[in-house]
Sequence to fold (335 residues):
Amino acid sequence: MQIGQIDFGEQPVFLAPMEDVTDPAFRLMCKRFGADMVYTEFISSDALIRSIDKTIQKLIISNEERPVAIQIYGKDTEAMVEAAKIAEQAGPDILDINFGCPVKKVAKKGAGAGLLQNIPKMLEITSAIVNAVKIPVTAKTRLGWDDDHKIIVELAEQLQDCGISALTIHGRTRAQMYTGEADWTLIGEVKKNPRMHIPIIGNGDITTPKIAKECFDKYGVDAIMIGRASFGRPWIFKEVKHYLKTGEELPPFTFEWKMNVLHQEVIDSVNLLDERRGILHVRRHLAASPLFKGIPNFRDTRIAMLRAETKEELFEIFDKIQESDIVNNELKESR
Fold:
C-alpha cells in the first residue's frame, strides 16, 4: 500500500490519532512494537493559528516516529488552510484531516464529525487544504451522522475527488460515539467500489490479531488502524504483525515483561515531555491497561495511578502490584 511516495508494504497497521493518548512517548513505543505509521493527537486549527503553547507542543515529532502524520480539525476553511500550512512546517510525512471526532465540544460546533452534517463545507475544506500544502493529505471520518444518514460510500468518492491520498473510515456513526459494535460492511463497500482508487484504511473494534486478519481478508482494506485497544497495551502491534505474517499467535508475554514495557513507557513519557505532563499523559494509559484485569480489589490501585504526580509514585504502585500474592500466584502463570 502506498500513500504519496511512502510505501507501507502489504497489510500495514497504523496507530489511530487519539486525544490525550498519542503523545510522543506513546507513539514511539507503538512504533517500536511495529506500528507502520503513527498519528499525533488531533490539533485544533483555531488554537494552532493563535499559537497556543499547548497546541504548538503537539506539533513536535521525531525522526524515530516516521512515517508520522499530524492531524488537524476545525470548521472554518481559512483557519484550516492556515493551520495546515503551519503543520506542514513541522515536517510530518502526511497531513490528516479529522472529520470523525464525535465528542460534543467538537461535533456540535461544526468540526470533526459535525461536518458530516455539512458535506459542502467538508469538501471545501478538503480541497482547499490539498491545494495549499505539498505533502499528501488524508482524511478520517465515520459512516455518517446517524443510522438514517450513512453516506460514506458516496462521501468517499467526493473526498477522493477533492484530491486526498487515502481515507480512513471508522465503522460507526457520530450518533454511536464509541458505543455498540463497529460496522465494517460499509467500509468494505467503499473498498469494493470500482470508482475508488485511493487506499482505504479501516478502523473500529480491532482488539486482537485474529480480528485484524479478518478485517483484511473479509473487507479487503488496504490498511487497518488500532485505537483504544492499544491503551496500556502497545505490544498489540507486535502481536498483530506477527499473526498477519505467520498466521500464528505469539507465545504469551509474561506479566513481568509487560510491566517492564509500562515502566519504560513512564520513563519515555517523562523524558520526552517533562515530569508533570509526562505523568499526566501516561497514567491514563496505565489505568486503562488490560494487564490489570482480573486483579481483585484493584479499584483503589487504579485510582492511585490516576492521582500519581511523579514517576516514583507510579513505580511504587508497580512494585506493590508485582509483590501482591494474586500476581505472584495466578496472573504470572496465565499471562
